[in-house]
Amino acid sequence: MADISPKIQRTVALVDENKTVFDAATVMAGKYIGSVVVTGSSSVKGIFTERDLMRLVAERKNPAEVKLKDVMRTDLVSVAPTETVEQCLALMRTNRCRHLLVFENDQLSGIISLRDLAALMLEEKETLIGQLTRYITG
Predict the structure, then answer these.
(1) Phi and psi of 89, rounded to 5°?
(2) Which of 3.40.50.150, 1.20.1260.10, 3.90.1280.20, 3.40.30.10 is the CATH number of 13-74?
(3) Which string of DSSP letters, residue by residue, matches the chain?
(4) C-beta of residue 91 within 8 angstroms of C-beta of residue 75
(5) pLDDT digits (tens, 9 = 90+) for 82-137
(6) Domain covering 77-138, topology
(7) How many CB atoms lie within 10 A of CB 12?
(8) Judging by DSSP bridges, how do beta strands 107-113 and 99-104 pair with one another?
């Protein structure tokens, strides 16, 4: 199985830890994405996802009043661009998450989601089907 590098989203939405959940939700909605990377002092501090937003709403907290630094996920799950789909899926399953931060040489280089991994698996399967079809009919 190939590595995840072709599907890594290199343009990552960054939101400062002192911004509100409402600010993060606005960015997520505007970019049609399910997560933002939370930063502070020029470094990655955490991640905030649509699941975190739903949890906050379910607790009847006002997103416009809650700071990201108070609700972001700080137990970051990260991978290298050379990881395989299977390795990423195992990490997601173990950590119950749908987004993995991608670090290269200790620098954030992107993010990969469960949807990205599904697309990569589908492309690999379609390629294999094409090869097998050519083999059988060739």
Answers:
(1) -60, -40
(2) 3.90.1280.20
(3) --BSGGG-B-S--EEETTSBHHHHHHHHHHHT-SEEEEEETTEEEEEEEHHHHHHHHHTT--TTT-BHHHHSB-S--EE-TT-BHHHHHHHHHHHT-SEEEEEETTEEEEEEEHHHHHHHHHHHHHHHHHHHHHHHH-
(4) no
(5) 999 999 999 999 999 999 999 999 899 999 999 999 999 898 888 889 989 998 99
(6) CBS-domain (3.10.580)
(7) 18
(8) antiparallel
Residue keyed to tokens 């991608």: 102
**Spatial contact of 12 and 110, defined as CB atoms under 8 Å apart:** yes
pTM: 0.86
